[in-house]
């Protein structure tokens, strides 16, 4: 199977009450870990590339790595998606370069400006068989390329979504319901502390999601910032020389619930980063004389695979849906 768009994946996910995982890729081990898990579990998958990933790895390398994955796993649908496209030009470069899906993220602009640029991308993309994700509402976050201060974030306004989708013609819509990018999604003062001393974040705004669903029946919704920041891996990072105090993510049960509703695409990057870093830190601490990168990248790749397999089965529910 060649690379596919997300159209069929999302229609099936919407009707089947599950979601497709969109995992960020930056290098070979990440591409391999994700697609090994998806291949073995017969799950559709979205491999997404951020602006930072394009700068880090060079767009050609990333595209060729994804092509290799498609060749290795011909039986599962794989989409190649631009994550947080910042301009028409970046989207155009990816569309021209073989991506099957792009995100244009003008959520930081006015409603009208967001519509204008999204519409421009949609026209260019649709003429070439590529689908477009847009965003309304602003997520807080501290990722390199996605810097939004917590106080600048705002939930999506359900009363705007129908007009936005109609006027832009976008194929899916990312909304802000309380998730955010990175490993520090909530300040400790926003959380309660459970009996094990673990920070419990405020719940996602399912009321906002449900209002959006009512206004956009059958339309695929996307959740960014959906890492759960697993505390066992955070502990491992800290145990082996790292420092990630008060790292906290979105509880997996809430994402599972969202995937049973209109959420068809769930973006996960930080959990993969944390798992790789934890395993590499542990490996190097326990094997101080080793210096062959393959020795620590092998368990890191396995950690990516295990993390993605866990998400597919326990959070997304997309196993067996290829
Ligand atoms: O949403 C942001 C993704 O986690 C990508 O992060 O811009 O550091 O590649 P990045
Ligand atoms: P996390 O930082 O929660 O993994 O979110 C990733 C994301 O939204 C990529 O677009
Ligand atoms: Zn994102």
Task: Quickly list its features.
322 residues; 16% strand; binds zinc ion; binds 1,3-dihydroxyacetonephosphate; binds glyceraldehyde-3-phosphate; alpha/beta; 12 strands; globular; two-stranded antiparallel sheet; TIM Barrel
CATH fold type? TIM Barrel
CATH class designation? Alpha Beta
Structural class by helix and strand composition:
alpha/beta
CATH architecture: Alpha-Beta Barrel
Task: Give the CATH superfamily.
Answer: Aldolase class I
> What is the approximate shape?
globular
Question: Order of helices and strands, N to C?
Answer: HEHEHHEHEHEEEHEEEHEHHEHH
Through-space gap between termini: 11 Å
Strand order of the largest sheet: 1-2-3-4-5-8-11-12
Number of separate helices: 12
SSE order and pairing:
Layout: H1 7-16, E1 20-24, H2 28-40, E2 45-49, H3 51-57, H4 59-72, E3 78-85, H5 88-96, E4 101-104, H6 111-127, E5 131-136, E6 141-143, E7 146-148, H7 158-168, E8 172-175, E9 192-193, E10 199-200, H8 206-215, E11 221-223, H9 231-239, H10 252-260, E12 263-268, H11 270-286, H12 293-316
Parallel strand pairs: 1-2, 1-12, 2-3, 3-4, 4-5, 5-8, 8-11, 11-12
Antiparallel strand pairs: 6-7, 9-10
Helix pairs in contact: 2-4, 2-12, 3-4, 5-6, 7-8, 9-11, 11-12
The chain binds glyceraldehyde-3-phosphate (G3H), 1,3-dihydroxyacetonephosphate and zinc ion.
